[in-house]
Structure formats: C-alpha cells, structure tokens
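As a warm-up, study this chain.
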Amino acid sequence: MKIIDMHVHLCNRSRCSNLSAENINETLSKQIDGICLTDHWILNPKKKYSINVNVFYGVEFDCVMGDILAYGISSIPLRKRNLPANTIIDHIHKQGGIAVCAHPFSNRHDGFGKYVFDYDFDAIEVNGTILEGLQLKAKKAAIEMDIPTIGGSDAHSYRQLNTFVTKFEEAINSIDDIVKAVKNKECKAIKISGINKYER
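Now compare it with the structure written out below.
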C-alpha cells in the first residue's frame, strides 16, 4: 500500500504557487509516501528537487470546460489556450496515459460541473482545497461513472498540504504503476486529518 498526494504545485514551476521543496520536507505528513507535481502545462522536471519522499510528474491542463490532470504522458498539446476537452483527453489516451477530471464541482476553480458525465475520464479527483459537500459530489460522480477517485491537496502553499491523498493497494514505484492502478481501479481518495499542525 502507498499513500500519494496526486496534485501539488511547486513554486519554481508554477507562478501561482509559493510552495517550496523545503516547505514540503518540513510539513508533509509522515503518512504520505510520495507526491505528484502537476504544474500547469509543465510535464518534465526543470531540475532535480531535494524532496524527502518519492516524486512523480503529471501535468494540469486547462481547457474550455475546466481543468484536467494527466499522468503517464510524454508530450503536451502544442496549443495551450481554448482547447476542447475532448482534444486534450484524446491526446492523453493516445499516449496510454490517464485523464482525470480535476475538482469537477469546485467553487474556486474551473470545473466541469454537471458536464463531467459527458467525457471519457479515467478518474475523478477529490480535491483538498474545496468544501466537503463538493468533495462528496465528486465521489458520487465517480460511483455513477464507475471510475475510481484520486485524492490531491492541490497545494500551492504549505498550509494546504495533508488534506486529501490517494491510497493505492499495491506498491507504487513509477508513474506507470500509478497509471496501471488507476486503470485497474485499485486506488481511492482518502482524507488525511489531524496531521498538519498548520490548520487551514
């Protein structure tokens, strides 16, 4: 079993974030085995980061309908603005990756809302930065769509860490392991509570 925060933004990679590698090392719960850096339209590491847990890389795309998290891909679409959701999802699937609907019912981010059911997502995110009722709606949507949930803090600062994470049934040693587990529905979003001494 492995516990991974699947949605983290690092300050050196996302202008909207002030979360540093040092913040992660100082604040991340000991229950968490790894994180996935999912910065906007940035897929590969720009440099090696000194983070004390396993680090995997995904990417967050914005599209006309909302935001999409991608894992297990090697390239991003050439155009970055106003792409239809299906174009991005097809791009991900053609590379064997997984497309996850990020914070679908968020009141703070761009989300697909009721239109989440119209797209071929591999999982639904339960996002740590939004209200509990909206997290519950995401879980219910995943059940209705018969796809798994993943959990991510969507942390842009140390105060947002240690909220929702993903519990994997098997060992995770690579992004390929993550992709396989999601496709096989061998994961779920869980809440980390009472861990972060910096309460949001």
